[in-house]
Amino acid sequence: MVERTEEIGNLLVTVANVYPKDKSVSFHVTSFIKIVNGKIISLDEYWADDSDAPQWRLDKHIGTVIKCEPDRDGDFRLFS
Fold this sequence. Notes:
With about 80 residues, the protein is mainly beta. It has one helix at about 55-60, and strands spanning about 1-10, 10-20, 25-35, 40-50, 65-70, 75-80. The chain has one domain (about 1-80). The chain contains one helix and six strands. Strand 2 (about 10-20) and strand 3 form a beta hairpin. This is Nuclear transport factor 2 family protein.
């Protein structure tokens, strides 16, 4: 499910949640798509696993839980 898209000049940035039908796993992907003359000339993607943090990270107290909820306009805002 695409959560957000932004266009900055010839760069399209998308954020999507990717999961199988049974929703047994979940990932977020951020894609940076450069378009010239109507054609994609480069694509960079960064994937993140939405599952629980690994034990080594919990042991080191690295990171915090981030809640992401849509506002009235459907844009997602981060709340920690």
